[in-house]
Amino acid sequence: MRAITELIWHCTATPEGRAVTVAEIDRWHRARGWSGIGYHKVVHLDGSVSDGRPEARIGAHVGGRNTGTIGYTYVGGVAKDGRTPKDTRTPAQKATMARLTKEAIARHGLKQVSGHHDYSAKACPCFPARREYAPLLSDTNSLDGNQTFESEHPAKTGTVTAEILNFRRAPNGEIVGELPEGTFVTINAHDGSWMNVTTPAGYTGWVHGGYVRAA
User: Is the pTM of this model over 0.85?
Assistant: First the structure.
């Protein structure tokens, strides 16, 4: 198995809501003179996943950065007008993408998760992959260890309202990642103005409660 240190996310640059098959992407890439689909996985609108090129093979997804990386893509990335870049990910796609990212980090010991736009003058994948997946690289699943929290209220959900919300190891503690606006979290407990939350990917840490709107 080749050494892989980074996952790079892409979008298919197709209109919001339009389904795309692996066979279709394969035809696009062969038309460019490639040996076949350049992505290693494709995440469909319903959150299902199709395999593309085997991860053991070098992909064709970012010029100059295919060696040592894997490339995953989600279907979408353009508004319904067919021109405007847009984060069109469905909730099912977001959940699957977080799971795939977490699995790839564990499987390959990744050092970085990026978006195509980090290496090219493109909008793709139309969301800040480095910021969104930073908590996964930080292995924040172990933030709370065996610690338990007592609360008068059962766990409930909330939504991040800040453009970017720092995700911390402890109340007012070390910043280990960032949660973008709109992230859904499970609220576990409160400590003054601080809130213990769990992200959709299953990582637990602390955020300032003033920037989470409870459901």
Answer: no
